Amino acid sequence: xxxTLADWRPAIDEAIADLVPREIDAAYLESFFGVPTYxxxxxxxxxxxxxxxxxxxxxxxxxxxxVLFLVFVExxxxxxxxxxxxxxxxxxxxxGTIIVDDVEDEATIRRGExxxxxxxxxxxxxxxxxxMYFLPLKIIAQDPADLPADRRLAxxxxxxxxxxxxxxxxxxxxxxxxxxxxxxGIEEYLEMCACKTxxxxxxxxxxxxxxxxxxxxxxxxxxxxxxxxAVAFQIGDDILDVEHSLGRAGEFGKAFGNDIREGKKTxxxxxxxxxxxxxxxxxxxxxxxxxxxxxxxxxxxxxILEDAGSIEYARERALELAAQARAAIDGLDFDAETTRxxxxxxxxxxxxDE
Amino acid sequence: xxxTLADWRPAIDEAIADLVPREIDAAYLESFFGVPTYxxxxxxxxxxxxxxxxxxxxxxxxxxxxVLFLVFVExxxxxxxxxxxxxxxxxxxxxGTIIVDDVEDEATIRRGExxxxxxxxxxxxxxxxxxMYFLPLKIIAQDPADLPADRRLAxxxxxxxxxxxxxxxxxxxxxxxxxxxxxxGIEEYLEMCACKTxxxxxxxxxxxxxxxxxxxxxxxxxxxxxxxxAVAFQIGDDILDVEHSLGRAGEFGKAFGNDIREGKKTxxxxxxxxxxxxxxxxxxxxxxxxxxxxxxxxxxxxxILEDAGSIEYARERALELAAQARAAIDGLDFDAETTRxxxxxxxxxxxxDE
Lengths: 354, 354
What we know:
The structure is a homodimer. Chain A has helices at residues 2-19, 26-33, 42-57, 64-75, 84-104, 116-120, 122-134, 138-142, 149-178, 186-196, 198-211, 216-248, 258-261, 267-275, 278-289, 295-307, 310-328, 336-351, and strands at 109-110, 113-114. By secondary structure, the first copy, chain A, is mainly α. Chain A folds into two domains: 1-146, Farnesyl Diphosphate Synthase; 148-354, Farnesyl Diphosphate Synthase, CATH 1.10.600. A two-stranded antiparallel sheet of chain A has the order 1-2.
């Protein structure tokens, strides 16, 4: 998978630059957005749109959503190069959500540098993030692969379905963040992940199936694979926060246990609250509720998670989801090499160490 | 027009409540967003979605986008009651942009009460605002009027075109706000209005034409009407800020001259900078650049605008745009009563006093 990533990345970035050039001018604006009634201001739009967008993209990101799309397209018998513009759709959507999430979470750092709103202001960041929700959706209408009308309509209906669920997932996550008590259970947590992270994965898979005209059973199977892998990824992310923290607790005074400090209701926390004896569950709840935590409190929270077997439980659930993801595409009769890549990817999302 | 507004409003609000009920439960979530993979959290989504959405809608707003849509639909020979769900599309989009704009502008007040993000937090406000960009777009796929596939696709392509331009307009406005100097000219100002405010108007008109299957010439004509009226409205809005301020300057210590204090590059300001002699233009620029203004400075800015004839100029441009809007639908052979209503509306947007 990693070789493929490296191979495709320049082509993907080129396709994104076709959509939003690094240097924009009136000719680009006219060709992409239509003839103006009066006159566009390319100078202002360079500052408000292109510069912040490329600032984020140039910081990295693995473009794995675009690559996964291309892997599916190739497996479905089409030429990935021909579908590069479509590969940008989930990639730009994803980066747009990152910008908006960072404003919502009041994040300070993104990919090792200041979050976009800290550089350009909240207004520019939000507008570019929101613009990135709609820019890629225009690709379907531009129709670079000359798709029949029913495929274009199917793509729009799918995108509207999944993007609605994305906001549902984010809504649940935010609601829980603003509550003090740990109110929800494991099923709600998994649903939040399935909506918030899973739907972008589903867009990757379903779009590949739609543009290459696969039957519904195939579209459903790859969507399931992508959703399950995304949920496993999200749980892997939560585990990583604890493990990284345990590895470097106190080291150089670095921040650790960010999720605990933020009072995040992770799968581990939800599990520990249910499985611990009353006093320890109450103590964990109490540490999560505090606005500020000492290092000792964070370590105490970790030990409650460990004693309840919650880290192990989360890892097992993630592995189980990854296995379900592999099973979802098992009947698809994919090429052995593709299957190997896709299976490897379900392991990578849990076992990665960054 | 105002009678129609009052008549339709309860039905419009009912249609919106069909889309996002005031009280949401698992059954609604399942029917609108699809069967969950795991389990939704209606309690959290009530707090993060339905409550803030209705908080804003219940504060008022004239729903004129929905009403204008219904006026067009009726004129196009269809039963407005049948198209009520579609009337919600521009209305919910508009209210979503209001929530997001208020976060971007760090607004404190909306419709006489605290801006949503001041009550629910920036995270909830932004997510509900963004959710309102996608919730209404699902109506096309739900297809309550049983439209043929080509009409649904045309609706999506139109919406993606206009929503992209909306973000372009907002991007220009934000870029200028963040610049100190008044760099742009009148044509760019009008384009910003055409994109930012005009595109939502165009959605109203084009959607009505698309769902009732009008020829392109009719769709273009009503789109032009709506865009021109919206630009006139925007200029009217800027004039209103000055006139209100002149009327109550100093009264009870109330804030006045908000646009000047915010350094907003209105049509009047752009005109005055170009038409005033060098020294006065520089002084106006200087007042706009300041982070804080005294009341005397605001009054001085007003007198520069007045001396340059900029308030009169703006009113004339608005009247001219309104006349162009009326001319745009002149050849359409609309019913005399509809034409009267639509013409009256172009005057109302400039002459209104609130």
